[in-house]
Amino acid sequence: MSNHRAYQLYAHITWHTWKRSGCLDQAAVDDVRSAVASACRKSAVRVLRGAVLADHVHLVVSFRPDTRLSDFVRLAKSVAAVRSNQRVMGAVRWSRGFFAATIHKRDLSRVIDYVARQFERHPDRVPRPLKKPH
């Protein structure tokens, strides 16, 4: 039996805040990105493109056949909420669940472009910048 393994598995994953509240400011966005990076390391998932808006998250990922995307998302959401809520209690609350759709390699660039244009598509959902101390 050969140890060689090849795979081309891609997915578009989204999840949103509780009741679509726009609670993600720039500090929370940094927490989400850090939590996603941490979840990637633990779950053998690779983010090809991501966008974190004030009320939802989009990720285009590559993953291994033995990876459970639900474990990856659960870890990313929980770590992001814990980190954000340590700074401001109750700042971030996620809705239950997530959406995931697999992507064929021929459609990958189109979906990556779609995620890259999220701030153009939703200019009203760009996260608030951090307030500078006076």
Comma- or semicolon-separated keywords:
134 residues, alpha+beta, 4-stranded antiparallel β-sheet, globular
Describe, in short, the structure shown.
This protein is α+β, with helices and mostly antiparallel strands.
Query: Do you know the CATH topology?
Result: Alpha-Beta Plaits
Across the major sheet, the strand order is 2-3-1-4
- Residue-averaged pLDDT: 93
Number of strands: 4
Anisotropy-based shape = globular
What number of structural domains do the residues give?
A: 1
Helix content: 25-40%
Low-confidence segments, ≥5 residues, pLDDT <50? none
- By CATH reckoning, the class would read Alpha Beta
Order of helices and strands: EHEEHEHH
The CATH superfamily name is Transposase IS200-like
